[in-house]
TrEMBL record:
SMART domains in alphabetical order: IG, IGv
Native source organism of the sequence: Astyanax mexicanus
InterPro entries in UniProt: Ig-like_dom (IPR007110), Ig-like_dom_sf (IPR036179), Ig-like_fold (IPR013783), Ig_sub (IPR003599), Ig_V-set (IPR013106), IgSF_BTN/MOG (IPR050504)
SUPFAM superfamilies for this protein: Immunoglobulin
Protein name from the UniProt record: Myelin-oligodendrocyte glycoprotein-like
Keyword annotations from UniProtKB, A to Z: Disulfide bond, Glycoprotein, Immunoglobulin domain, Membrane, Signal
A Pfam family this chain is assigned to: V-set
Domain Ig-like, residue spans: 20-134
Length: 144
């Protein structure tokens, strides 16, 4: 009787569902020169086709006004954060799980943390993961 019970438990342990993906960003801060462009790297692992996923990039205290919101195969114009309008774009290959963004014309107030959030809805079930990227801006002084 004990042998039957153990046999039943062991196969069930292999049926535990794993997370469909995780969001991956660099641990080290990303550096950019004021006035230049910088890429904030973000991808999903394993590399899945993210074309039908939702991708949000936002500052930690500003989740309600993302700097970029990709949904239904397009970048939504609203409710994007107006201070980033025209300066941020998806540059990654969504079909390969790359959801990186390019931030142009870096300003002093752009330094700090950015959250990359990826959401997937499948047959009524929703899954998401997010990770934080830190941007440091530097100034180059021209000594004459």
């Amino acid at each position: 009787m004990l042998m039957r019970w153990i046999w039943f438990i062991v196969p069930m342990s292999f049926c535990i569902e794993q997370d469909p993906f995780s969001v991956v960003v660099p641990r080290a801060p990303v550096y950019g020169l004021l006035g230049s462009s910088v890429t904030l790297p973000c991808s999903i692992s394993p590399p899945l086709n993210a074309v039908n996923f939702e991708v949000l990039w936002f500052r930690p205290q500003e989740a309600h006004t993302p700097i970029l919101f990709y949904q239904d195969l397009e970048i939504r114009k609203n409710p994007r954060n107006p201070q980033y309008q025209g300066r941020v774009s998806l540059i990654g290959g969504l079909d390969k799980g790359n959801v990186s963004v390019k931030l142009e014309n870096i300003r002093l107030e752009d330094k700090g943390e950015y959250i990359c959030r990826v959401e997937k809805t499948d047959e009524g079930e929703e899954w998401y993961d997010e990770a934080t990227v830190s941007l440091r801006s530097t100034v180059v002084l021209n000594a004459r």
